[in-house]
Amino acid sequence: MTTLIHNAVLIDPEAGTESPGALVLRDGVLADVLPAAPEALDRFAEVIDAQGRHLAPGLVDWGVKVSEPGERHKESFRTAGLAAAAGGVTTIVTRPDTHPAIDTPEILEFVARRASQDSPVRVLPMAALTKGREGREMTEIGFLQDAGAVAFTDADRVTEDTRVLARALTYARSLQALVVTHVQDPGLSRGAVMTSGKFASLRGLPAVSPMAERLGLQRDLSLVEMTCARFHADQVTTAAALPALAQAKDRGLDVTAGVSVHHLTLNDFDVGDYRTFFKLVPPLRQEEDREAAVEALASGLIDVLCSQHTPQDEESKRLPFEAAAAGAVGLETLLPASLRLVHGGRLSLPQLFRALSLNPSRRLGLPTGRLAKGAPADLVLFDLHAPFVLDRWTMQSKSKNTPFDGARLQGRVRGTWVAGRRVWPLPKDL
Which of 14, 204, 306, 381 holds its CA 20 to 30 A away from the CA of 137? Predict the structure, then answer.
């Protein structure tokens, strides 16, 4: 079936443009990119009038936790896929911090099978870097890569043994595999739930200095320089860490970095009176760090913007702040929360979609993230100026632990397509 979407404002992050146009979808790819709709509309099986809304490549959300296997009551591939579709996310790159961890080809194949059966969006799994994510022995990276792993990470666990990490990076380099690490000094950050400062002291909560992130990043970058491995820092959230990242890129190391939308739009004051929906890993930073991270994303120093989707059930969040589980869901709020930066004049739409779609696609070797002839027809149509108040109970995710509950947001998703098939709003046959 051939579909025409016309009367749209096309956001092309590759060209850096935002202009009126139309797209032709055929056989799962973009068959044509037009400046306007052709006169003969009857030759298309389906014609969609975008009514002047924005049309962009679908989001590629890197670092999503889907709680299968082990904690399906928190999130399944079906509910995560529906949440992604509702948020304009067409590809989710999943973390291996499940129970058990995704550290063997057999578990990876189970995950891939469940994802293909249940999720309406594309699912690309990452595998564990070390067995059981325990940091003692590296996994069979080659076998896992053959089974479909797109990258290797122990998620938010730091490999404390430098020799183990160096060996893993060396082996990954021989296979051109991408290694993703959580950059924190484990000794300084262990047990901390907030970023150090006056607010943490007033609340009497154990805190960690931003220098812990800088120390962790510097160690990992030194090992990358030694091994020449492909490397991605999953969360760079402090001003103190940015110079080390800039120096590594200047030296030509194969390095990229990401940041979550929560760390770009919230700060440590949002914790307020011990609001556990704002307990994250890493913890929310001070306003100066948030501003620095926004500037780094705008300049391209930080490459990827993600949700760091981490579902937690009510029982694990309704606890004292120190005891509560960390993390927040974000698949459905990634786009509208990110648009705060556009409405505030900090980013243009092409800049935003470079970080949300094009850069993660390029880093993972995917053909997505572009509005070009022959590219996959993975698209999001959204109303840039539509305001709404988020009600967490209307979200598609099984878990409802969002820090944006009750927040005023602007930018509603009106349609999501994966390989030319509309997956949101839900078609009758889904």
Answer: 306
